Amino acid sequence: TLSGHAPAQGFEMRVMRKNGERFDARFYVSPLIDSEGRQTGWMASINDITEARRARAALEASHERFVTVLDGLAAAVCVADAQSDEVLFANRAAKAIFGMDVVGRRADDLPLCVDDQLRLDPKRLTVEDLPQELFDGEVPDAGSGRWYHLRERAVRWVDGRVVRMAIATDITDRREIEEMNLQQQERLQETSRLITMGEMASSLAHELNQPLSAIANYNSGCVTRLQSGKFRVDDLLGAMQKASFQAERAGKIIRRVREFVKKSEPNRAPAFLADVVDDAVGFADIDAKKASARIRVELANDLPLVNIDRIMIEQVLLNLIKNGIEAMHDTPREMRELRVSAYRTDERMVEVAVADRGHGLPAEKLDKLFAPFYTTKAEGMGMGLNICRSIVEFHDGRLWAEANPGGGSIFRFTVPVEMDDERWMTA
Predict the structure, then answer these.
(1) Exposure string over 89-117, b if 16+ CB within 10 A, otherwise e
(2) pLDDT: is 17 or 271 the higher one?
């Protein structure tokens, strides 16, 4: 009995068939050994490996294209085993960010580690759960101090196991630009508040002069009666009570001005919208009286607390109210009414509307109103509505304008509800 006892030896070569067709083949050769262990000859075989070689070449080319594309990305790409946490693949950008080849290392040892409490645990996932979002957010690099937008997904790897695929994009420059824009926006808002107060300085001086004059008159009258010795305690008490009321009135005006113009960081906190409207109307009422206009406030009874920076939203309201009053300059006096209303639109937002009976705005100008430096006023800067929109968008709301069916314009904006307000949650 003969058998191929020794390991087969093989080699590849190009072979031509009788018809002239060439193909890739692998020859296998092994010695023939008889029952007594003697070599009696050789056994050879030939296999056509053309298709296998073509498939292997295609796979290698595909892998090369895959690696070339990933290495050409500016974003870092890493793949790690969901169970062992071993990094299986990292592109060139990932190696540059971490300053080393991270393949074979633990993913959680890398500087862009995400708190497990913020990320879905991939170890609990099966192939049937895939693909699955694990994390999407901005994280800092503890080593370099740069910021990255990191997105992690659980996917099925080429060998069937569950892996974490992470893509990290450097957003440091974008964050710095956003920070600069925010600082610039804050300076613009402060300037806008100062300009508003400057425009209202004469009116405010007049408004303050009234209570201060009243206080002086009440005190002068009390002094005169005391000096004459002819007085009744009830008369003096009544005069002093009226002086005290006027002092509180003057103090309220000063407090409003001080809070409105002071520089401070944006501070969103729960607030009663009715109080904000009251303060804004209190300021604007001075101009309204001078313009022979009336301000009517209509607030829904079930308004929840809102999560806002009170001074910033007061700035938006005051700007819109002042614009509405100015827009009614040519409106007949009996029709100069500006309406401020507010109501909740859904479980997340409250809508505020400022409606005037002024000249209105052409439809083609509505989209331009909020552009920087666009103004319909002869002496306007064109920044007021642009700043207002930025403030509202900072509060995750939106600001828009529309025609008032009764004539004039309506400016509407939304602000978010304070979700911890128990009155709202149980409404």
Answers:
(1) bbbbbbbebbeeebeebebeebebebeee
(2) 271
Residue 104: left (phi > 0), alpha (psi -120 to 50), or beta? Answer: left
pLDDT tens, position by position, 73-88: 778 888 888 888 888 8
CB atoms inside a 10 Å sphere around CB 54: 11
CB atoms within 10 A of CB 33: 18
Q: Tell me: the pLDDT tens digits for 132-156?
A: 888 888 877 766 778 888 888 888 8
DSSP strands (E only) in 36-131: 39-48, 76-81, 87-90
Q: Which residues pair with 31 in a beta bridge?
A: 42
Contact status, residue 151 vs residue 136, Cβ threshold 8 Å: yes
Q: Which of 75-84, 294-303, 374-383, 398-407 has the highest mean pLDDT?
A: 294-303
Q: What pairing do the DSSP bridges indicate for beta strands 269-271 and 399-403? A: unpaired
SS3 178: helix
Distance between CA 91 and CA 242 in Å, rounded?
78
d(CA 137, CA 175) in angstroms, rounded, equals 13
DSSP tag of 2: -
* Beta-carbon-side half-sphere exposure of residue 404 (alpha carbons within 13 Å): 22
Contacts of 368 (CB under 8 A, 6+ apart): 374
Q: How far apart are CA 425 and CA 335, in angstroms?
A: 40
Give the residue with greater pLDDT, 166 vs 324.
324
| 305, 315, 389 from 401: Cα distances, Å | 25, 17, 11
Tens digit of each residue's pLDDT (9 = 90 or more) over 236-286: 888 888 888 778 877 776 776 666 656 555 678 899 999 999 888 887 887
What span, in angstroms and rounded, lies between the C-alpha atoms of 392 and 408? 22
